[in-house]
Amino acid sequence: MKLKWGLSFLFFILGLSFLTFSCYQNRVYDWDMPGYLGSIYSWEFPDEPQKVHEMVYSDIEKEASKIEFDDILHYNHANEVFYADYKAFGEQLPYYKIKIGYNVAVYVLYKLGFTGPHSVLLVNVFSYFICGLLVFYALKQFFPKNYFIAPLLTLFVFWFPPVRDMAQNPTPDMFVFVFLMLFIISVLQKKSELLPFIFLLCCILIRPDYVLFAMSYLFVVFIFKYFNENKKIDYSLIIQGFSFAVIYIAIIKYYNYPIFTSNLCFFLIAPI
Questions:
Q1: What are the phi and psi torsion angles at 57 (to 5°)?
Q2: Residues 89/33, Cβ–Cβ less than 8 Å
């Protein structure tokens, strides 16, 4: 059995490595990249917005093809304004700065010596590979005696264009998918109540809008436990929900991110 699973895993790793390298070769420099680069460069030069603006576009121009760079500049009128005016560019950065977890990962790669644009895209490429391993691990639990369903199904999913697009484009979606998979695995294995909270917290730090998903999960668990445990209130879920709400509000307040809080009221109070 171990030999068969070993051969299965070897086949899977070779296939996943090929797909990952393909994503790296076909990486895309699009109109979201200036926002993420501006976020991390502003950490380096917090009092020099004009320098940040110049670095962002000059660094992208060095790596992107002429077609991609022109598309970034002329995707719409707003992008043309951002390129021409460093003050306007700085005003739209809160939409990117709130994705703290993603920016931290990009910044770590940047400090390790990778270029800014490469750092943005490598986070997604690495996340793509890690996600493949996690999906393979999860499917292996469902098919413990079928040595090729898990690798073949995983490779098929990760060959699918929408999944590869997340790895090739500057977006935090693939990175957050890593922690979603860890969250799902931790819930299925039921080994710890703390791990799901940590993984959901990571999702919120990467993309704050995942607070809706986190609150919905806590609400469902709260109701399920209430009716299946002699109507006892699980105060740990209330604390978790309150923590998520405080962290979410702190992020959007700190970065002056526009939000219609009234639309989120139900989710913010759901676990209570």
A1: -75, -35
A2: no
- Mean of all residue pLDDT scores within the chain: 88
pTM: 0.89
Count of other CB atoms within 10 angstroms of residue 29: 22
How far apart (Å, rounded) are the C-alpha atoms in residues 220 and 226? 10
- CA-CA distance, 174 to 157, in Å (whole number)? 13
Concatenate the DSSP letters of all residues of the chain into one string.
Answer: -HHHHHHHHHHHHHHHHHHHHHHHHT----TTHHHHHHHHHHHH-TT-HHHHHHHHHHHHHHHS-HHHHHHHHHSSHHHHHHHH-HHHHHHTTHHHHT-HHHHHHHHHHHHTT--HHHHHHHHHHHHHHHHHHHHHHHHHHH-TT-TTHHHHHHHHHHHSHHHHHHHHSS-THHHHHHHHHHHHHHHHHT--SHHHHHHHHHHHHH-GGGHHHHHHHHHHHHHHHHHHTTT---HHHHHHHHHHHHHHHHHHHHTT----GGGGHHHHHTT-
* Tens-digit pLDDT profile for residues 24-79: 999 999 889 999 999 999 999 988 999 999 999 999 999 988 888 988 888 788 88
